[in-house]
Design goal:
Blueprint (H helix, E strand, L loop, with lengths): L4 E2 L2 H21 L5 E7 L3 H17 L2 E7 L5 H13 L5 E4 L9 H7 L11 H9 L11 H11 L9 E5 L6 H8 L7 E5 L6 H7 L2 E4 L17 E4 L2 E5 L6 E5 L11 E3 L5 H21 L3
Parallel strand pairs: 1-11, 2-3, 2-4, 5-6, 5-7, 7-8, 8-11
Antiparallel strand pairs: 9-10
This protein binds ligand LMY7XDAE.
The ligand Nc1nc2c(c(=O)[nH]1)N[C@@H](CN(C=O)c1ccc(C(=O)N[C@@H](CCC(=O)O)C(=O)O)cc1)CN2 binds next to helix 2, strand 4, helix 6 and helix 9.
Length: 296
């Protein structure tokens, strides 16, 4: 039995895209055309699918976009040269480097090479630093897309986290760490536990959490019998596992579908945080263009 109400990321992202379409046309009337660049290294099917989705979204809202798809044999220096080109390209008002990068590439050095004013992912150290220092008033600088998407998804469903105990499972730089910072801001005022592979008794944390954000990338690790009844559960992690019936790869989230019978709200996967991640990327691109149109 499914009791949980659905945090519908697909429908919410569609509404955000409608709002952005109007903002983009207002910018275009003022002679400003927002343009997204994507840098994709290698041939990971998941990354290719996400990047393709980002370009489809751009076309939908009127943002121009360019792709730089590169072989996984590229060197650090060659990749940095591509970023230097994008930093200098006036038509690219914002860009992202799709993660993960191959192991021989120094990811932190790459993120640092992005012009912070063109950082559409909010992952440049300057922009992450603003998040840590809590100095990015709304729209001053980009926020990382997935954490921002999670907050926006909850806000637009009128789900308040004030005073709630949130368990974030996963301490990665694109989700867990920045999400902990966002949720502990005074405007949200949640209490956050960041669980990770070194966490001793995850089951104990799970059983006590009012809100669970699962971003570990371990299929169905969050089970109904472990979750506090009435908890709010967001499924962010994704794995590609072979479907035994068809033999084809299938997307599987971190949350067992049976959790829907005990949770009060559930953000499914697919259809939850993924589309919101893409909507927040578009938001970052539009806001950067609006800042530059305002001369900031
Ligand atoms: N540079 C970045 N790299 C990565 C990020 C990021 O924010 N910036 N996050 C993730 C992947 N990601 C964005 O790039 C992403 C994940 C999921 C989706 C999405 O729309 N998922 C759909 C299903 C899509 C499908 O069927 O393939 C859904 O959940 O409904 C978009 C973007 C890691 N890398």
């Amino acid at each position: 039995m499914n009791n949980a109400r659905i945090l519908d990321g697909k429908a919410t992202a569609a509404r955000i895209k409608e709002e952005l379409t109007e903002r983009v046309s207002a910018l275009r009337e003022r002679g400003v055309t927002p343009g997204l660049g994507t840098v994709l290294v290698g041939d990971d099917p998941g990354s290719h699918s996400y990047v393709a989705g980002k370009h489809r979204d751009c076309a939908q809202v009127g943002i121009t976009s360019v792709r730089r798809d590169l072989p996984d044999t590229i060197t650090q220096e060659e990749l940095e040269a591509v970023l230097d080109e994008l930093n200098a390209d006036a038509a690219t008002t914002g860009y992202i480097v799709q993660l993960p990068l191959p192991a021989h590439i120094d990811t932190n050095a790459i993120l640092e090479r992005i012009d912070p004013a063109k950082d559409a992912d909010g992952l440049h150290p300057t922009n992450l630093g603003k998040l840590v220092l809590n100095v990015n008033a709304p729209m001053d600088s980009p926020l990382p897309c997935t954490p921002h998407g999670i907050v926006e998804l909850l806000l637009r469903h009128d789900v308040e986290l004030k005073g709630l105990d949130v368990l974030v499972v996963g301490r990665g730089v694109t989700v867990g760490r920045p999400l902990g910072l966002l949720l502990t801001r005074k405007q949200i005022n949640a209490t956050v536990t960041l669980a990770h592979t070194g966490t001793v008794d995850l089951a104990d944390h799970l059983g006590r959490a009012d809100v669970v954000v699962a971003a570990a990338g371990i299929p169905h690790m969050i089970r109904a019998d472990r979750v506090k009844p009435g908890a709010i559960v967001l499924d962010v992690g994704v794995s590609r596992v072979e479907d035994p019936e068809t033999g084809r790869a299938k997307l599987t989230g971190d949350v067992d579908p049976a959790v829907a019978s005990v949770a009060s709200w559930l953000s499914p996967n697919p259809g939850g945080v993924g589309p919101m991640t893409r909507a927040m990327l578009l938001t970052n691109v539009v806001e950067a263009a609006e800042r530059s149109a305002a001369g900031n």
